[in-house]
Amino acid sequence: MIDEFEGLEQEEIDILLKAPVLVCILIAGADDNIDKSEFREAVNLAQIKQRKARRSLLNYYAEVGKDFEDKMKILINNLPVKAQERNIEIVKELEQLNKVFPKVGKKFGRDLYSSLRDMAKKIAEASGGILGYMSVGYEESKYIELKMIKDPHKQ
To answer: Residue-wise pLDDT tens for the chain (155 aa)?
Structure first.
């Protein structure tokens, strides 16, 4: 078990473990199309973060990374097909982190928030744009900063 999860309700643990998958789907599918490069980048990031995350997040990403690809596929299939509807649902779920972050300790909350934003940026850049320039599309840019999650650094 992840030490920071001690004392949390199961729903709170679930949203923490689901957050990276939700962020990946939100950003990759913001333009109504989750392309292969974005999907591959999400799976690749999950694998990398199991080895190279901030020390406080290594156990967390070891748990999150288990069957990450399958988790993404299942969640994509369970969410609305249209980006507009899907994004509303994902944003509502990610907003739940605002109630959970204060319960997991400042360092863990701050590190996870920064890590999720880093993931969002890398997923957004994965599809390449025009010849690799302007790689973050308009729809992705609306979500890349994860404004639905309050910055734990400022609390």
So the answer is: 799 999 999 999 999 999 999 999 999 998 888 888 889 999 999 999 999 989 999 999 999 999 999 999 999 999 999 999 999 999 999 999 999 999 999 999 999 999 999 999 988 887 655 444 446 666 777 898 999 999 998 87
Q: Phi/psi at 93 (nearest 5 deg)?
A: -70, -45
**DSSP state letter for 128:** -
Domain ranges of the chain: 9-154
| Cα(50)–Cα(62) distance, integer angstroms | 5
Alpha carbon 49 to chain centroid, angstroms:
12
User: What does the angle CA 60 – CA 61 – CA 65 come to, to the nearest 5 degrees?
Assistant: 130
Distances (CA, A) of 139 to 29, 31, 84, 115, 127: 9, 5, 10, 21, 13
The total of other beta-carbon atoms located within 10 Å of residue 52's CB is: 10
Q: What share of the chain is helix, strand, coil (3-state, %, to 5)?
A: 70, 0, 30
Residue bearing tokens 């944003």:
91
Separation CA 69–CA 91 (nearest Å): 21
